[in-house]
Design a protein that fits this description.
The complex is a heterodimer of chains A (143) and B (390). The mean pLDDT of chain A is 94. The longest helix of chain A has 8 residues, at 17-24. Chain A is mainly beta and 143 residues long. Chain A is 6% helix and 34% strand. Chain A has one helix and eight strands, in the order αββββββββ. A five-stranded antiparallel beta sheet of chain A has the order 6-5-4-7-8. In chain A, strands 2-1-3 form a three-stranded antiparallel beta sheet. Chain A has one domain. Chain B has 390 residues and is of the alpha/beta class. In chain B, the strands form two sheets. A nine-stranded mixed beta sheet of chain B has the order 3-2-4-7-1-8-11-10-9, sandwiched between helices. In chain B, a hairpin with a 1-residue loop joins strand 5 and strand 6 (207-208). In chain B, helix 9 packs across helix 10. Classes of the chains: A mainly beta (143), B alpha/beta (390). Strand 4 of chain A pairs antiparallel with strand 5 of chain B.
């Protein structure tokens, strides 16, 4: 699998490297502002809410809510296969929102709905890169 | 029209649009570069204004290249330049910046120009984002290959929240096509039904192929000068009464809400406040229709209808020719032209409507027009209110 993946891969910058390193270890890690006590996304060396620079990294519980989604019937040509993809916006229990793929579910609006609970799964697409994706879950999202 | 004084709204009606133009042809132009499309549009807009390139002392342009490319190509050496690039509505933002520069006396004649070989890709850079950009790290790897994803995300949430239907989205495309049949310069002019839209293939559910704009090659340009100077020029001056801009995000994952358009609420409120008019005063609206969902969220954000009501608002041909709310009277990005950065054409058509030059698509007696654009993926919004009276 890892040798045949043809999809686009993230190229980290120094500020995003910890996120991608954590993903490789199957952790969803988020930057956390020690001043205003909240997580944010995407990674920056300062807090976009308060401009504070006291930023640490904290692992997310990996659970959240699917805010919205589309079913992409025309995946990028470089993708390993051309099956329809569910692309969604997940709001994590810690607050930040990110884009990801919703997997483990039929790519159909009969099966994917806004506000459904989701949890992270880690897709080791290559030996170097792991993409955090999400699947539906019955587990409650902690507040 | 009152309620906004020059003391509180120093840019209101200080500048006027005196020339508009498109490239000589619009469509799929395998023999013309993006730069040539700029030139043709600029030449035609300046001729419309009764001016020449030697009169221009400010150039505003936007694309994927640096803003000094176009003035050099045109042989113009401006003393003021604007290269704001916030996506397809950039040219509406340029109008606001030109108004400020003209009111401040730092320039006299501003040329705003667009040229894009969106289909043929001649004279166009290839890559949109760097390999280590946030987009290429946090969106592209998941299969988000293009704006249809970002715009579709809001469509899904709006449908979930308010029960908006695919048929209501299709109304926008059908109305645009009906207007396009009245515009000889429109790219797609064959009749279109709601069934045609719904049976076109899915691109990114809930959006079908015919919910998506065209991909064409074209240029467009607009010339502004001071209200005083405009009265000495041949065309009827079209005054810019109000302008507003807002930005909320770059990547769509950072959009504040998906069932409403925060940036458009802000740009619209600013433009209406500057103009001293309200949505019910608008005679004709040109609203960027990159996808059918865009005008729906815009109609709500700008106050033409309540939140969640836009699907019902556009139903039954209300925005089509003969309807009570004439919208996208050139056929829009859905049927007239869409190069990639469509915003300039909103202004071109609004000015023609206010001058009475829109031919078979003319809205009788139009005196007040609204232009509203989007940039990126709901990222930026810009609103202009144009008038035949100062």
């Amino acid at each position: 699998m890892s040798t045949t993946y043809t999809g686009p891969l993230p190229v980290p910058t120094p500020e995003s490297r910890p996120f991608w390193d954590a993903a490789k270890q199957h952790r969803l890690s988020l930057p956390y502002c020690e001043s205003c006590k909240r997580s944010f996304f995407y990674p920056r060396p300062f807090c976009p809410f308060c401009f504070g620079e006291d930023v640490s990294w904290r692992d997310s519980c990996g659970r959240g809510t699917l805010i919205t989604f589309v079913i992409n019937h025309r995946p990028p040509r470089s993708f390993p296969n051309q099956d329809p993809l569910v692309i969604g916006i997940v709001e994590l229990a810690e607050g930040p929102r990110l884009m990801s793929q919703i997997v483990g579910v039929e790519p159909s609006p009969d099966h994917v709905v806004c506000d459904m609970p989701v949890e992270v799964v880690f897709d080791d697409v290559t030996a170097e890169v792991t993409l955090p994706k999400f699947r539906p879950t019955n587990r409650a999202t902690p507040l | 029209m009152s309620g906004a004084s020059s003391a509180t709204m120093p840019l209101r009606a200080r500048a006027a649009i005196v020339g508009v133009g498109e490239s000589d042809q619009i469509g799929r132009l395998a023999d013309k570069s993006a730069q040539q499309l700029h030139m043709e549009a600029a030449r035609n807009a300046l001729a419309d204004a009764g001016l020449g390139p030697g009169d221009v002392d400010a150039v505003f342009t936007s694309g994927r290249n640096m803003a000094n490319e176009v003035p050099e190509y045109l042989g113009i050496k401006p003393r003021f330049v604007g290269g704001t690039q916030v996506g397809g509505c950039s040219f509406l933002v340029h109008v606001e910046h030109a108004m400020a520069a003209i009111a401040a006396g730092v320039c006299s004649v501003a040329l705003i120009t667009h040229g894009e070989s969106g289909y043929s890709r001649i004279g166009m850079p290839r890559q949109r984002w760097g390999d280590d950009s946030v987009n290429n790290q946090f969106e592209i790897p998941y299969g988000a290959g293009g704006p249809v994803i970002g715009y579709g995300l809001a469509a899904t949430r709006h449908m979930h929240e308010y029960g908006t239907t695919s048929e209501q989205l299709a109304e926008v495309a059908v109305a645009a096509r009906a207007w396009a049949t009245l515009n000889p310069r429109a790219f797609s002019r064959n009749p279109l039904s709601i069934g045609d839209v719904l049976s076109s293939r899915l691109i990114a559910w809930p959006l079908h192929l015919l919910d998506c704009c065209l991909v064409t090659d074209a240029g467009g340009a607009v010339v502004l000068t001071s209200a005083e100077r405009s009265r000495d020029l041949p065309a009827k001056p079209i005054y810019v009464l109000g302008a507003g801009t807002s930005l909320t995000h770059q990547m769509v994952s950072q959009m504040p809400n998906f069932d409403r358009w925060d940036a458009a609420e802000r740009s619209g409120a600013a433009a209406f406040a500057m103009a001293g008019v309200s949505p019910r005063d608008i005679d004709v609206a040109e609203i960027y229709d990159a996808f059918t969902i865009v005008p729906l969220l815009a109609l709500e954000a700008l106050g033409f209808c309540g939140r969640g009501e836009s699907g019902a608002f556009v139903t039954g041909g209300r925005i089509a020719p003969g309807g009570e709310f004439p919208m996208n009277t050139n056929g829009g990005g859905l049927s007239y032209t869409h190069t990639g950065m469509y915003g300039i054409f909103l202004i071109v058509e609004a000015v023609r409507q206010l001058r009475g030059q829109s031919g078979d698509a003319q809205v009788n007696g139009a005196e007040l027009a609204l232009c509203h654009g989007t940039g990126g993926e709901w990222s930026s919004a810009a609103t202009l209110i144009l008038s035949t009276h100062d």
